[in-house]
Amino acid sequence: MHKSSKSARAAVWIALIVLTALTYVPIIVMLSMSVRNNGQIFSDFWGLPSPWVWENYNVAFKGIGRNLANSVFVGGTATVGVVFLSALSGYVFARLRFPGKEFFYYLILSLLMIPGVLTLIPLYVQMSNYHLLDTWWALFLPWVAGGQVFGIILCRTFLEALPNELFECSRIDGASEFTNFLRIAVPLSYPILITLAVLNLVGNYNDFIWPLLAINGEANQMVTVQLQKVGMTTSGLQYGPRMAAYVLSCLPLLVIFSFGMKYYISGITSGAVKG
To answer: Nearest-CA neighbor of 176 among 71, 61, 96?
Structure first.
């Protein structure tokens, strides 16, 4: 029995290692193709670069450098708005009493049942009527408004689990509700707020459909859309620059997860336990 248990564990570990290795195959292929030209790729797809074509990264950066900055700036700004408003609204629903609180909360909750694709046409018409198309406001406002739905639910669930005595003692000392929010609720909610920030920033950064519809000019366009134009020449698609652009576009997300992973895991764990 003991030997069979060890064999089963070994089989599981082998399976996990194989599956993990397979998930890295596309990434390795992307990195390899990013420093090769079409001739090398078509003649020996699985071979090593010879020579290494680093010029692909120069071409890729010229093609998406500005758009990469656009995505980081607009997505990051919208994320700040989502986190602040979600935390503030979550505090209101968790700690304050007012008529219709549960009704409005479940009204917000019901928005999760509406697929985002159903709102594309109404949202496009609305932005057109406001004359905001082809501006960053057409991205910023929908991202902030849409990101709050999940954020309010997450923040309310977390803040409701905090001891009420903390806030009562502060009120006795004369603190206002906004002071309680800034000095008690926000510091204690750092893990869940960083989790919300990471989820929103990744979602905004990876959004493709809405920027494609809302932004026409290349100067204001997001990197996800601009990627489709990198490497396009009169002789056809150059895969090397395209793959190099994919690599560059991944770097901001790698930085985000590198610095926020500790708090992200902590926030996910806290939300699971407290929910």
So the answer is: 96
Q: How far apart are the C-alpha atoms of 267 and 57, rounded to whole Å?
A: 36
SS3 per residue for 130-195: CCCCCCCHHHHHHHHHHHHHHHHHHHHHHHHCCCHHHHHHHHHCCCCHHHHHHHHHHHHCHHHHHH
**What are the tens digits of pLDDT across the range 156-181?**
988 888 888 888 888 888 888 888 88
> Cβ(194)–Cβ(264) under 8 Å?
yes
> Alpha-carbon distance 263 to 190, whole Å?
8
Q: How far apart are CA 211 and CA 125, in angstroms?
A: 14
76-88: burial string, b at 16+ Cβ within 10 Å, e else = bbbbebbbebbbb
For residue 237, the cross-strand partners are 232
Domains and CATH numbers, the chain: 56-274 (1.10.3720.10)
Q: Position of tokens 């193709």? A: 33
Q: Could you write out the DSSP letters of every residue in 42-56?
A: HH-TTSPPSS--THH
pLDDT in tens, 93-137: 988 888 988 899 999 888 888 888 888 999 999 999 999 999 999
